[in-house]
Amino acid sequence: MTFYQVPAPDLSGLTSAGATLHLLEPFGYSNDDRLLLVRATYTELGASDLRYAFFVFDLESQDFIANINVMLSGDANVDAIDVVDAAIIGDQKSWTVIARVETLGETNSVLQSVASNGSIVSDVTSSNLGLSIQVEVTNFKISGDGRYIAIETRGEQLASDLIPDTNDQTEDVYLIDTQTKSVLRVSLAGGAEVQDPVYLQDLKVASDGLIQISLLTAAALVNPNIDSNSLNLNSPLGSRDDTYLWSVASDESGWTGVPAIDLVSKDITGSASGYVTDDYGPSVITDLGVMYSSDAPELIGSDGNSAVDVFLNDGFSTVRLTEISGEEFNSGGTLLSASESGESLVVLTDSDEFGGVEGLSQIVLINTLDGTAEVVSSNGNQANNIAINGLLSHSGYTLAFTSLASNLVSDASVTTSGDLFINQSAIPLDGKIYHWSNHALLSGVTIDVTQVLSSGDIDIFATSQTGLIGDYGLTVPFLNQVTLAPSLAFDPSDRRSAITSADALAALKIAVGLNPNADPDGAGPLNAAEVSPYQYIASDVNKDGRITSADALATLKMAVGLSSALQPEWLFVAQGQTFWLDDGTDGYTLDSNNVDWQLGLLLDGAAPDDLDFVAVLLGDVNGSWQAPNDATILPDDYFRQLEQDGYGPAGKWDVVPIP
What we know:
Helix content is 9%, strand content 35%. The longest helix is centred in the last third of the chain and has 12 residues, at 549-560. The radius of gyration is 29 Å and the shape is elongated. The relative contact order is 0.08.
């Protein structure tokens, strides 16, 4: 486990007068869980108005890498804006932040975006719909690929002529498809407008294309016989508030069919329960169903703590999550966040069975698979002050939370009203694997995470496999002396087409110092590519670290299929092993007398940015192995960019240079 306090971001770029940092809060994770979006609340020296700025924090380097306010406004205008809400998509290498921006002196907020490469969209909503006026946004959610954006707004600009917006200055929810430039109104009941505000809670797009949006409202969005509490306008405060799940199918062309809407907060009679409010946390969509908090007394048949509890509606039934072995938390708890799978969630509670003190809230992690619960807003000791909020990563292995406690770490507080802490139980690792010459992404490659034990045995404590596009992802609990070790069994049917006498001849040429590679344009201006480091590795079939006529003979035996021949095998070279001399001599570190390279990728303390691997078939010196017809191929520009990034010439991957 890794537990630390997030340092203070640099506020000097936000104001020339100096600033006081009051609060740091987590607002979202990148798709790969490596970046955290952080909101800083501050005041300028000599002023009392609260200001807001967003920063991107790298969880691996434990450092801030971007100031979103500065990127959006530039140094000259940074004093004029506040970023009040934001989301991040993409990964550590390429990310985009979508921000709800307020300009000082104006009442409306607008969605803007900025990418890691600096590109800016000044009005996300209008630019995607071709509108000439700004749309005021009060809340938003975005899908992981950025295609779909759910918008909560009081404005009427997004309403259609068929169903105009007549409930002026009342919140409605719309769904925007940024690819087809279309919009769909979500906050309808039977196709008609409702008069009560409808609040956006969450957006999820499933792998099968199902788009789901959770909503919170006092309006009757389903059959009034079920949603009867919404009709009683004189009922107690909160008794009409329920959570709903709106959904519509989609494919590559966009949404299809007719949207559906279901009541989520049902009591034991199947009627709307009410008493679901924003004060009790969000309604979160997970793979298991919708999670939400409520103090309604009859959501289940055995609710006796008269407190707010967390519930799950899986589409068929409702279960309480704030319980252990069927026993409810004495003081209940409110939902803060959940992992995408729904296997983990965090709740805020002061329940005494966790050593809590009334009024001293802690964050408890609940595992829905085994029903266990543990305090995670502490570092082996009882926190001496309250936790304010918490956000789980997509995988559920990282928790970022804000707390007033002063005894969690030895570092001094960096805020006046709540520091940000990271509790990381596992570390995400992801990458891709491709063939060195034809650039096909390889599926079915096993990636083991191994560690050498004191006994000398090798322990495999995590494993994954590449998907159809050659990508893999896994999580590990630590990065101390562990190795990423890909492997793939050789298909014997590939032997005759991949390893031939031409490979034996190429190995022999390399052994005697000749270049086996052909000139790509004959008498043209291009020259034959230098011998690639991957060709040296493929040629050293006896693995003695040098290439001789013995390797050529061994390759010939493999080609003709002699029973005494060495067996072909896949080797996987970390892409980060560039084999390129950086001393200005412009050459490779490998040659026929030195085939020294590292098998697998050793990680010790931190994961590098590059976790990709290059596949080399031992004995296939000319790289003639044929990929399956349906394999995805990386474009040549990918390797030309690697050349620009210092990985060596693109010819290393058999890419012909641009004349």
